[in-house]
Amino acid sequence: MKTQTIHPTNAFFVDTDNASTQKESISKSTISNRIVLTATMLLLLSGAALVYFLQPDFYNFNQSRINSPLGLAFLGLTISLLLFKISFLLYNVYLYFQYKPIESVSDELLPTCTVIVPAYNEGKLVYQTLHSIANSDFPAHKIQILAIDDGSKDDTWYWMNKAKEELGDRVVTFQQPENKGKRHALYRGFNLGTGEIFVTIDSDSIIKTDTLRNLVSPFIVDQNCGAVAGNVRVLNNKSAILPKMLNVSFVMSFEFVRSAESQLGSVLCTPGALAAYKASAVFKCLPEWIDQKFMGVASDIGEDRAMTNMILKQGKKVLFQRNAIVLTDVPERYKGLYKMFIRWGRSNVRENLVMSKFVFTNFRKESKVGARLLFTNQFLTIIMTYPFFLFMLYFIVMHPLLFISSTLLGILIVSSFPVLFYAKKYSAKESLWAYAYSVLYTFGLFWIAPYAIATAGRSGWLTREIVAK
């Protein structure tokens, strides 16, 4: 279930009793955070020490694998994939250092822009989203804001119209007669929009004042730009543990991975929280996009990745703007987190299959090597999911102590990169959440990928539920 957090964006007074309660809550949260981080570090260091003491057992295990034809083949495959992944990481590091966001163009050069905000059971947060858009440092006569309620069952429609009352004609609200899904809400916005550029923003997201102008400037600088991905950070990361973990993960996913992808003109997914599309590119693929099916069933997930794929297929570049920041709400409980990851996993499987049909064709005039390399990396990860999953189960059953110790050491080594990356850019203290996130993902969410592959044909948003007040 998605947890909705109301943030004090528009607070006009302070309740002293509530302030005292909040301080007490923050104090308890700080203590629990320290306990989690301390326990995580002790666990990882214990795993590393255990590997040292179990060296003879590891030697015997590796010898038995080498002496087995099947084990030797699997070892060779593992080493080959490891070398590929290391080479791919080093290449991404090189691309990252080459990347620079495009600076905002002048007001005169900024294109006309239609901002579409689809909402379902979002409550008051959509009100804050619309206000953040209206407060943008963007010429008012060049921006059209469309808020579309997708048949919500809560008070979302009330808060949309509350924002409209305060912002006047700057916001136009629409209500779907019934809940049809985010894709249909966006489709209505695309057909109603008049801007040269479409910007889509999730209704649980807040943008900064310069976000819009930074997001759409690449379309003016590069005429072959078809879409731009925004830089997503976590909004509700002040107290809850899961959002703190996800905030560090998002920085790695966006500021590192998408910076590298942007250098290749092939960002693989423009996020639903914040993305921009050239209107002409959207209309070229809109009929195919709205009628998209998978295994004969209408697709109601992955609308952002699908749109990105279709624009890449047109030969257009898809770029990333690090200076276009959006803050978005993320799940604060395990149930909401795994449902979100299942949805993303299924979409990833579907769209990689779609991408495989055009990525090795002559789909663009510029170099296609980068796009093909990015696809190959993702596709290898998918096809190796089950072999490694089965090996992991075998390892756990036959050598549980070796599995736990080697896995913890692996987490300590591999997660040090995102830790150092976040520490360099933001905060050394907060960077340690990368270790905790890796432990959670490895031991608590390892089943997501194989489950998503096995159920890729299933539909459903999974997290679109009314939050208990």
From TrEMBL:
Transmembrane stretches, start-end: 35-54, 74-97, 373-396, 402-422, 434-454
DNA damage keyword on record: no
Coiled-coil ranges (or none): none
InterPro entries given in the database record: Nucleotide-diphossugar_trans
Main location: membrane
Alphabetized UniProt keyword annotations: Cell membrane, Glycosyltransferase, Membrane, Transferase, Transmembrane, Transmembrane helix
A Pfam family the protein falls into: Glyco_tranf_2_3
Subcellular location: Cell membrane
Name the record gives this protein: Glycosyltransferase family 2 protein
